[in-house]
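Researcher: Last one for today. Full complex below.
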Amino acid sequence: MDYRFSEKVSHIKASAIREILKFTSQPGVISLAAGNPAPEAFPVDEITRISKEIFEEDPILALQYSISEGYTPLRDLLKKELEKKGEFVPDRDELIIVSGAQQANAMMAKVLCDPGDILCCEAPSFIGSLNAFKSYNVDLRGITLKEDGIDLDELEEVLKTGKVKLIYLICNFQNPTGLTTSLEKRKGAYELAKKYGAIILEDNPYGDLRFTGENVPSIKSMDKDGIVAYSRTFSKILAPGIRVGYISAPKEIINKMVICKQVDDVHTNIWAQVLAYKFMTQCDMNAHLEKLRAIYRHKCQLMIEQIEKNFSSKISFTRPEGGLFVWCTLPDDCDMSAFCTRAVKEFKVAVVPGNAFMISESDHTTSFRLNFSTPTDEQLVAGCEMLGKLSKEMFGE
Amino acid sequence: MDYRFSEKVSHIKASAIREILKFTSQPGVISLAAGNPAPEAFPVDEITRISKEIFEEDPILALQYSISEGYTPLRDLLKKELEKKGEFVPDRDELIIVSGAQQANAMMAKVLCDPGDILCCEAPSFIGSLNAFKSYNVDLRGITLKEDGIDLDELEEVLKTGKVKLIYLICNFQNPTGLTTSLEKRKGAYELAKKYGAIILEDNPYGDLRFTGENVPSIKSMDKDGIVAYSRTFSKILAPGIRVGYISAPKEIINKMVICKQVDDVHTNIWAQVLAYKFMTQCDMNAHLEKLRAIYRHKCQLMIEQIEKNFSSKISFTRPEGGLFVWCTLPDDCDMSAFCTRAVKEFKVAVVPGNAFMISESDHTTSFRLNFSTPTDEQLVAGCEMLGKLSKEMFGE
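Model: Here's the assembly. Have a good evening.
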């Protein structure tokens, strides 16, 4: 049988990260390629207790069909939380609970983009979102990401085509670079979106994981024109396996997303939504987040120290103020691809080659991504030592 | 702000059922309009115990990221179950776990259909699936559903266009009609799909809920040509709130669905997958299903009795051998819409007008759907008495 697939999916491929992760399951391989929260970051005891409580108190609530908008007490609580943080104050109909931020971002493309519409994103950017956008046949345009955020001139050039529907930005501790967009760049992107009639999709999965430096206001908090959607997730602050995220946007957009959610998967697992609600109301969220920040602060510092100690001086790297990733870059004349391949095959350390995060994997880059959240301290040190050895062998001291 | 939505979603609307369900939350309204499992059908004690066990045994498994294909032990178990039932024997890469059968069906359209491709379905059919297909801009064609399944001549006429990608069928106790497709019609549909190069999507949410009559082999069990996909769900046999379903299809299609799943929502809530696995392995599934069948057999019989006793003889109705629904039809000169509206507004009984299940809500029908799974026996009797009173007032004895 010769299957004829839709144009939408015929050109998308399995994530390159997944291919590399296959190597990580081989015995003896240290993975600095993942993006999972540290296992010690999960509040196991609290979740165990709360899950039990859910079934003791109201098992039918956790088992019966629920509404597509999401568990109402959780929606109302998230509104209060956003208000308390000084972010912004969405009405109830300006927020929908979804199955992780991945679904929120994919749905934004489904709801807003026709094939050929332009979607601008940072280059590099999060591969999961890029593939989600590609699965709706959008015309993806990468805007160069600098130390303080995307190049606004480059963005405006693309906006001038009049075909840009969405601008996708991860402003805090971006995946894969760990970079944070400055307040000026956030304001600039907002003004440009407004000027050219585009919607900004601000993805903030790591916002609560700032372990150093000062908070920068979200673009959504500046939104007076109804042009910003803002997605977050419980994956990095509670647990990714429960698949709970949310997105806040103008109610016209949320209305469409509710219909979309209804036809795509009816509603998000309701046990997980009640769990998130009870965790937020019964536990000390600030103390929990401080614990997570301490874990990642430590792991990030350890990685930076090890890079400084071991890596060839040819390799430059970012110094993230939060999140899970460090981005390393080789000079233009170095063979990054050979480095990553030798790293995993000969030195048994997996990293993600930077082209996995480019609009097209054939786009030139000499960068690679390191993750510090998943490995143990011992693995992190050993992994960086091996990468250091290889880097010096290939590129000199 | 004048939001420009994608063509895909600009024409889909919130389900008509949802609008009617709004009335059901008014005090005193009896709902025969839902499609929820009976609350007493949930194995609450077993689920409570198993959930506790999951967190005692391996909490990280239930909280960490998992793979897009689904929990491997559950995939392997479902293969064995299908084999044991004499259905068919999928390889592991011919089955993916998804967030309910709704997601499986929506994804089939995403993976296979370009805008304008024809998708044939029973008329009437399940509104959730129809809206999911519409959200990918397919050209939906309803094929008249008769007592023993769709009109095959009508199907062939559409297939002759050469533009049919998918044929969507609910062969067992169909939603909304409760009708079961005969073996002959199943074979006939398969042969036609093969002849014209179309894929059949066989949705079987109610298959385990046969409470009378003999099992009819699935179309998938006849598939020698790799042209049938088969979706099922735990919603009706375990709990819909956990959102776990699966689909088996040729591995080329499953491969595409895995990528689709990865970009749409990464993976299905892993706690729920482990729960389904443990329930199937630790509990007596046969005894559990017999209990469910007894509940629905009783409720269906009660509804049929009440219809016979109370309704105007002008109303004909189906006698389902399983599932959750009875389909009632008025003569062509009767005003079904007025009947449904008066039923909920004056007589405080909610039913779903049949046009909610047509390809277009403006398509003519004089039918309406009754649900017997959700109401209590008392509500069911009282509801049918009120509908009977109204029907005799409007249409005579």
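The longest strand of chain A covers residues 139-146. The mean pLDDT of chain A is 94.
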